[in-house]
Amino acid sequence: MEVPNKGRRRFLAGLLAAGVVPRATWADAGSPAFLSAAAKADGSFVLCGIGEDLQVRFELPLPTRGHAAAAHPTRPEAVAFARRPGTFALVIDCATGQQKAVLASPEGRHFYGHGTFSSDGQLLFTTENDYEAGRGRIGVWDAQSGYRRIDEWDSGGIGPHDIKRLPGTDILVLANGGIDTHPDTGRTKLNIPTMAPNLAFVEDGNMVEMATLTEQMHKNSIRHLAVGHNKQVAFGMQWQGDGPATSLVGVHRMGQPVKLMSASTTAMRDMQGYVGSVALSSDGQTIVVTSPRGGLLQYYNVASGELSHSLEIQDVCGVVAFGTGMIASSGNGEMQQIAYGMPHLQKLTDVQWDNHLIAVSAS
Asked: From CA 201, how far away is CA 166, in angstroms rounded?
């Protein structure tokens, strides 16, 4: 793929060489709206910045397959996480293409492929597995001092996968999936009979609130999150029980009970027990989830708590809110802009998109 802002990168590099240090913004990286990891036809891996028009703004190399990324709230800087159970993450200057730092998980830990920044961008938080203790951790990294690790907190559960920050706060919400794994056994799930997923809300290392599922749903691993402007949290799950799940989607707001979305047995079976990504509409009224296994994108009405409709998209996984609609990506290279529940802009790229689309702040 052509990198449209290559000239701008040379210009910035020239200013740096001359001792002039401009304050770079995401505009210097081509003003991407989203980030996504991808695989190229030659077997190499990249992190891409994607514009609102679905055009690739930049394409930066990764050493291995990526999973998700974290976009710095002000600087054109991204942290690209390796696929679980990865032990490193790369900090990339998306304006110059330079690698700024490598995050290495402490001995006895691995990353889960997700992270998020504090509201001021000074700290990065990562989800990690302390696999000898069988406990989830939150890594705390100083983004102002070369991404030096400065602290770690308990995640409030086992298997923390996704992590988000509630808008306007520094309260973190974690999807503790409840599944214990160990590198010696690969991705084998070691504790299905006793797993206990939860949503944990953590601020400055302290547990603010924890939301759990009923005993009948304890085999529903909470995996992925989306947060709304009103601090509403939508979550997608992956069912580890027998037969079709009764629900794979829920919503929660601090101080209120968890609300699970419902759908027919057929609709649940079609998802094959697996939600790959989740998005919450800008008005907070619709939750959209994807299943690459089922090749489905499902829309849920938050008020009614019911499935409204589904779209068939082969190998779909990434989804993110965009304006009044959604953007979805798939492993076959498709990128789709969806409005009013129907695709209206489709682009076929020459990469295979990985699991997640991450929104980039315009600030």
From this structure: 9
